[in-house]
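in:
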């Protein structure tokens, strides 16, 4: 008689820096059956050879199965690591295959995605994942873990005191995963930091560490003030001082990094600014507030794409 536990069936959607990071650690777990869903199909291969370099500089080659429709249907959990601008459309394409019992974990920058998802998706099964890990890809097949951080996760639509059963399995595969009964407050804090660092680095073509330069401080204060006022209307306590202090701390601790928005601009890719500064500007309008600085930054970043 086989007493081995049934492995958690996980599909990772998106093989960018963070998707690749999670894929490596999930693939190592004996308690997880992993498959990768490529958003663009370039071949009929059933698996893919990948390389991962950990934070100690050690490199490993591994092979992952590519997801079939049957893997989507039977998935216990789908981890979506895509840019916010692509999530809604990708999940719409998968909506007829996703089971009502499948957990959908979204990992992306910005906010405003949940209410735009397909109505057939059960919102109580949607979760938000935030990460402070550093990672980047040298090629589509090679990811490098540049900085060890942690991940925060919680329900996107309701307050859940206790994590779902699959949380323990994920945490064992990739430790320092913390459950939050109210993830929205954490998400707002990350949004606020992104509102500061991302547009300033993208518009000025600078690394994160340059944001602490004195010449950007007046702009940072204006951004933080607008974000704080909008957050208050959303019942989120987020002072302008806390936003400024944390944004500068993050900029200093990641001083040699390029923000995701700057990376997108340099590659002439569409950015997530509509879900970052643009989200603040839109919410401000809904609450009869003004957020001219965040609106201006949104417009300016979008104008950089040729």
């Amino acid at each position: 008689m086989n007493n081995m536990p049934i492995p958690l069936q996980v599909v990772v959607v998106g093989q960018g820096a963070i998707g690749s990071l999670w894929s490596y650690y999930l693939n190592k777990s004996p308690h997880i059956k992993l498959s990768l869903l490529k958003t663009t199909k370039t071949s009929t291969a059933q698996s893919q050879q990948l390389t991962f370099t950990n934070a100690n500089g050690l490199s490993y080659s591994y092979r992952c199965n590519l997801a079939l429709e049957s893997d989507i249907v039977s998935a216990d959990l789908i981890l979506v690591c895509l840019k916010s601008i692509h999530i809604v459309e990708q999940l719409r394409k998968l909506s007829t295959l996703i089971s009502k019992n499948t957990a959908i974990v979204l990992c992306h920058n910005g906010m405003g995605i949940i209410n735009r998802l397909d109505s057939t998706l059960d919102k109580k099964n949607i979760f938000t994942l935030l990460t402070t890990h550093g990672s980047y890809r040298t090629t589509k097949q090679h990811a490098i873990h540049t900085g060890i951080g942690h991940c925060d996760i919680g329900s996107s639509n309701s307050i859940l005191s206790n994590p779902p059963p699959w949380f323990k399995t994920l945490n064992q595969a990739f430790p320092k995963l913390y459950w939050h009964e109210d993830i929205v407050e954490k998400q707002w804090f990350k949004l606020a930091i992104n509102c500061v660092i991302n547009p300033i680095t993208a518009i000025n073509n600078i690394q994160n560490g340059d944001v602490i330069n004195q010449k950007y401080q007046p702009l940072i204060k204006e951004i933080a003030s607008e974000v704080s006022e909008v957050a208050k209307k959303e019942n989120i306590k987020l002072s302008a001082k806390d936003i400024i202090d944390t944004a500068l701390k993050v900029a200093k601790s990641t001083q040699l990094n390029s923000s995701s928005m700057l990376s997108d601009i340099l590659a002439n890719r569409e950015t997530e600014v509509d879900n970052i500064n643009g989200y603040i500007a839109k919410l401000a309008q809904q609450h009869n507030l003004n957020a001219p600085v965040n609106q201006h930054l949104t417009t300016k970043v979008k104008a950089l794409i040729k």
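note: The chain is about 40% helix and 20% strand.
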